[in-house]
Amino acid sequence: MSNPVFVALDTPDLRAAEALARSIAPHVGGLKLGLEFFAANGPAGVRFLGEVGLPIFLDLKLHDIPNTVGKAVAALAPLAPAILTVHAAGGRAMLEAARAAAPPACKVVAVTVLTSLDAADLAQAGVHGTPAAQVDRLADLTRAAGCDGIVCSGEEVGQVSARWPGGTFVVPGLRPAGSDVGDQKRVLTPADALQRGASVLVIGRPITGAPDPAEAARAIAASLKASAALPAGV
Ligand SMILES: O=c1ccn([C@@H]2O[C@H](COP(=O)(O)O)[C@@H](O)[C@H]2O)c(=O)[nH]1
């Protein structure tokens, strides 16, 4: 993957998503479509944006019993996503069912600890310890289930990528220095995350909410090159 940035098109508006996608396409490596977009536009919307010509990351964060998740993944397979998310907390059998039902070319990655959560949030949910410890536990479970990688924050990607050679490490919660973090709690800059071992950089509002999204995407790509984190020519 040359340009690791997948832009999160978090909008229910199909035409707005298309316009954004086309304007930033030269500066990103793929499009991430999540719950907001999928709830409004469904599989037809995914096919429509597929015509932009960039890899599609379906971020649906599936989390249910193994039978249900397996069948949902099978139903999504004709959309040929490059990446698909499930929740690692769904357990080993659910992760195995997702991997078995996905096309071989689709990377199935499991969300460990959402980047909008910190240690206090985890404690409220009965998980005591640091986000980093929980990410490690769920990464081990995901790997044992045969999935391709995980979603974690930039704070954990260094430790977890060192433990899992060949894994795919998807990192959201990315903010260029000085930008608004919004609802994210575990954040890092895109260049720092890449240098720590991220494979895929998920960036939404810093691009889509910018006055000039194409310029914001271009500047982020330039920051990756400047930090020597991205191969020349990208
Ligand atoms: O732990 C996670 C998992 C997924 N996301 C998704 O990434 C983007 C982030 O958007 P920003 O606007 O850059 O904050 C969004 O689509 C989330 O659903 C995440 O943030 N954290």
From TrEMBL:
Domain Orotidine 5'-phosphate decarboxylase, chain residue ranges per copy: 4-220
Family the entry assigns: Belongs to the OMP decarboxylase family. Type 1 subfamily.
Catalytic activity line of the entry: orotidine 5'-phosphate + H(+) = UMP + CO2
Keyword Lyase: yes
Listed pathway(s): Pyrimidine metabolism; UMP biosynthesis via de novo pathway; UMP from orotate: step 2/2
SMART domains tied to this protein: OMPdecase
Organism, as annotated: Sphingomonas humi
Quaternary structure note: Homodimer.
Record keywords: Decarboxylase, Lyase, Pyrimidine biosynthesis
Protein name according to UniProt: Orotidine 5'-phosphate decarboxylase
Annotated substrate binding sites: 10, 32, 59-68, 115, 175, 184, 204-205
Domain of life: Bacteria
EC numbers on record: 4.1.1.23
Residues forming the catalytic site: 61
GN (gene name): pyrF
Job of this protein: Catalyzes the decarboxylation of orotidine 5'-monophosphate (OMP) to uridine 5'-monophosphate (UMP).
